[in-house]
Amino acid sequence: MDYLHRSQADLPASLWQTIDEAAVKAARDKLTGRRFLDLQGPFGPGLTSIEVGNDDYCRQPAEGEAGAVMGRAISVPMLRKSFRLSIRRVAGHLENGQPLDLKPAEDAAEAVADREEDFIYRGQPDRQLAGLLTQEGRIHIDGGDWSGVERALADVLAAVTKLDEAGYRGPYALALAPALYNGLFRLYPGTDIMQLEHLHRLCTRGIYKAAIEGGVLVDPRLGALIVGQDLRAGYISQDGVHYHLFLSESIVLRIDEPPAICTISARIRLDLGRGRARGEIVSGRRETVEEVVPSDSEESGQRS
Asked: What is the domain extent for residue 281?
């Protein structure tokens, strides 16, 4: 089944391979969920839904009544983004060996990758798809202000302890909002050890910068990413000036054990200097408030 319609385009297989490789490389640079979650598939584009959980009676049958056993299924989203390539530039590449600019394909791949990340972390609640940050039954801790060098370790240790008490011994992976992740490049006072290096000893499955709010610590037993069709390019049409193409994939996060997830609410403050605004990064957003300049004694006491 030629669901990508490649046979309708007068383009060689080598070019399709080049486009696919450029798209995968661009997407890979933005994807984090695939780096620490178990991956199953690809099973093909025909995978439109998967069953989750165990079959069970939908309700307890009354005396003399037949019982009804049912399962639960979730949809497998198809992610798609169109783009265009110049017919003249493609011809120049194929006929004369000129370089072909594949930035339109790379931009489309990044858009698909962003949407995949959004599904993994936030899901699609109106379609009964949960993400790592929204799954019911997950563990949650209220973190503090990571401006203090020791607070990040304290919050992550608290999250690890919660998962450990729930029976999830790791290895753990940690995904953080950009501001929280970037703050880990500070050194512990009086040492040459970065916070990031220290936390890596605890989160041996990796620490990742993701476009999320706060942070999330997971044990790999939480579930798996199910892939129907992996990222590939297809053909739509051509108008004499451009080839109209698209990138698509189908993927869904199956969460089997919500208690293997621990979300962390945390924030970090950025001091921009005396007498200037102080920006507070809360869950990836920056809110600016006026800073009251402390006295020298107060200022020295605030620094750690």
From this structure: 139-221+261-302
One-letter amino acid at 167 equals: G
Q: 150-175, pLDDT tens digit by residue?
A: 899 999 999 999 999 999 999 999 99
Q: Using CA atoms, how far apart are residues 148 and 93, in angstroms rounded to an integer? A: 54
Residue 88 shares a structural domain with residue 40: yes
Q: Which residues are CB-neighbours of 63 under 8 A, at least 6 positions away?
A: none
Instruction: For 193, list phi and psi in degrees, rounded to 5.
Output: -100, 125
Q: Structure pTM?
A: 0.84
Question: What's the farthest any 2 CA atoms get from each other in the chain?
Answer: 82
CA angle (175 as vertex; 178, 51 as ends), nearest 5: 135
Asked if residue 64 is part of any domain, the answer here is: no
Do 274 and 203 have their domain in common? Answer: yes
Q: Label residues 45-56 b or e (16+ Cβ within 10 Å = b).
A: bebeebeeeeee
